[in-house]
Amino acid sequence: MTTDFFALSQPPFDTLDKEQRERLQRHSQIVYLDSLQPIDKQWYGDFFIIIKGQIHQLQGEEFVANLNVGDWFATQIALDNPLDDTTTDFQFITQQQSLLYRFDKNVFNQIIEENTALKNLLFADLSARLATRQSRLAQSESQQLLHQPISLLGQHIKPPQFIDGNASLRQAVVAMNQVHAKHILVKLISELRQNDIDKLLKAGVNPSDIPKMSSKIGIFTQTDVCHAIEQQADFDTTAVKDFCHL
Fold first, then answer.
1. pLDDT tens digits, residue range 113-131?
2. What predicted TM-score, i.e. pTM, was given to this entire model?
3. CATH number of 7-115: 1.10.10.10, 1.20.1090.10, 3.10.290.10, 2.60.120.10?
4. Under a CB-based contact definition with an 8 Å cutoff, are residues 99 and 53 in contact?
5. What class, spelled out in words, does domain 158-242 have in CATH?
């Protein structure tokens, strides 16, 4: 079944070219789900856009997002490749009678590999959903901490998370999502000039300590993810150090 999909002309799908849009239309179907009905297992891995209705996205028993008309979802997603069906499973349950566009998984995966802009936008959208979920959890935890004795608060302090400055933007976002954080610390190494090294040696600094002095720590946040999207950075080839700040 093919249709002139209005949804495929709206962000982020406005990044599709004419041939890609027509290819999706040829491998599409409109499906109906009753209220409180989960996505059929035979459709796992396919890609959906909501035409009418409302759907809740869950991960395990945790609520992730409320999806409405025009929102997209895929039932199996890997955080390092949003539409790869090899890792993270999400559950989707309708909250009312719903109509959906359903796109063939293989065709859609092929298109996002061709269209880096669309791939990055979908990746950022999913990351934002998970960040919102984590924000809700953090707020709940904060309320609980108010009633905890001070002697017990140490167990709630998370260790800092680091990533090498040469890692890609995608690797940085994946690392943030894995620890449910809104930021990650970035290890940066600046090359010392010879005259700087000579000054340190003259001041009595141990030669073995000099490399440590060239190391700096930056930070990469959810805001920096948005900046990278705005500048149309390639998340697979751009180093996180290019968007972090000291």
1. 899 888 888 888 877 777 7
2. 0.58
3. 2.60.120.10
4. yes
5. alpha beta
